[in-house]
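Q: Structure tokens for this one, please.
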Amino acid sequence: MKRGVLLRWAAHLPLTEKTPRLSLGEGDTPLIAGASLARDVGCAELWLKFEGLNPTGSFKDRGMVVAVAKAVEAGVRSAVCASTGNTSASAAAYCAVAGVACNVVVPEGKVALGKLAQAVAHGARIVVLRGNFDAALARVREVAARRGIALLNSVNPHRIEGQKTAAFEIVEELGRVPDAVALPVGNAGNISAYWRGFCELGGRRPVMLGFQASGAAPLVSGVPVPQPETVATAIRIGNPASWKAALAAQRESGGLFAAVTDAEILTAWRRLSTETGVFCEPASAAPVAGLLRLAREKKDFNGQVIVAVLTGHGLKDPQAAIDGQAEMGPPVADDPAALEAALR
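A: Here is the predicted structure, written as tokens:
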């Protein structure tokens, strides 16, 4: 039985006797082998940490359960977050189980409907802001500070604490620290969290590789992107809130940040579905696209064990799958011969 992050990793988290042990069964997500992708990357082993199998379908649940539990402990009864989708779904779910009112601010026209549907289903109040994610986050930070309500974005330190537990699981399951960990980077909290987890374990640490979409790559260019654009909605962020912490993780690990095009992301996304059986949202394919690009640029991964973190499930953004596939043919007659001909 899955115990959840608060029970499984209590000794590594900022919990007290008064912290409610909330859980929806988050954590303990699998490492899935990507043999054909490992061959093309040129590494010994490539493992896919599929965070899409968390309760609300994304890695956000690891940190959200800690943030909401600590909010309840502090006596807060209302919470708010800005979101491109995954944060809103997770916040709404954990607030629902905790009895906390949840308010979600989303940028107009910039959220996948699969994610927004979750927040609505869990009873969150949805406010659509005329602006991008960066504007939404700036506004909710102001409101949360002024009104004394819990801010559930990754600037909340409890979020990072929960998300670091994925690093513990990787080492536990592999029986060793991987040589490199590749992640998609949007608001940049996750790469910071993984690095914290590996540092807390002590000993050897992996190289951290962060990949952004070329239309939303402020950590690559070194300057904010005023109007970020990419098919990978989960990382469509132009001014990451955890910029400094992410840079520290990259520098201290000897890693890098790189950008990949939407075409490269979608190619990797299709390969994940058709070659490994893993259906992730487009943003999750960015690290695989990045590893393949580095291999084409003659980066030497020979003999290395690499983990690519797939942050969200494909059902978070089903329209991307539908839009990215060829149209189905016309219906065939209800006749065995016609069906047999169509199946050829």
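A few notes: The chain has two domains: 5-58+159-323, 60-155. The radius of gyration is 20 Å.
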